[in-house]
Amino acid sequence: METERVDPDDLAFLRGAFGVDGGGQPALGWDAVRAFEAEHGIVLPEPYRTFVAEVTDGSPSGPPEYGLVPLATLPADWGNGRPERVLNRPFPLTETWVWEDDPRPGDVLDPLLDEVFDHGSVVLGTEGCGMYWHLIVNGPQRGHIWLVTGEGAMPFGSDPGSLDGEPGFLGWVRHWADGKSWFDMR
Question: Which domain holds residue 84?
Fold first, then answer.
């Protein structure tokens, strides 16, 4: 999974998968992407970075179910009263965690959950029912996609215990474009 350079063929695939003329948001342009990165102290992983700069900044067609949200926004069902999102803090997970089965008390779990939901990632969109796709922008999982729900979090990609598919933004979009279910476990 390449996170520092974009392959022109991969960008062409992404452009076609989202049907640039299909009602999506205009691309942000490089100045806006660099300003977002500077404001948050991160560099977006490729090919997502070039995708939002040159192709589209959000699309009503998937992935995910309710469309790809623009870079600086959150899905409509995200909710109010959440802690501030801190993108330059590392995403805390490296493997699947089902917190609904975690025996630790809420005063221990709640700060950890806030980190999972709000640190080191941009939210790509929602499947509904509190299921959010995150692109990790900081930490050991940088460039990977994670599904974060009310019950737990798991990576999308080639890792054992993950949702099946090629890792990263490109693999996530390919999985959707191929008409595969998100929940085909290995």
Answer: 8-177
Q: Are 134 and 145 in contact (CB under 8 A)?
A: yes
The total number of structural domains in the chain stands at 1
Q: At what angle do helices 168-177 and 8-18 cross, to 10 degrees?
A: 40
Phi, psi of 30 (to 5 degrees): -65, -35
Residue 142 falls inside a structural domain: yes
3-state secondary structure of 183: coil
Concatenating the DSSP letter of every residue in 93-116 gives -SS-B-GGG--S-HHHHHHHHHHH
CA atoms within 13 A on the CB side of 77: 15
For residue 186, tell me if it sits in a domain. no
pLDDT along the chain (186 residues), means of 10: 88 87 78 97 97 92 86 87 90 93 88 92 92 96 94 82 77 90 59
The two three-digit tokens of residue 160, written as one number: 């054992």
Residue 185: inside a domain: no
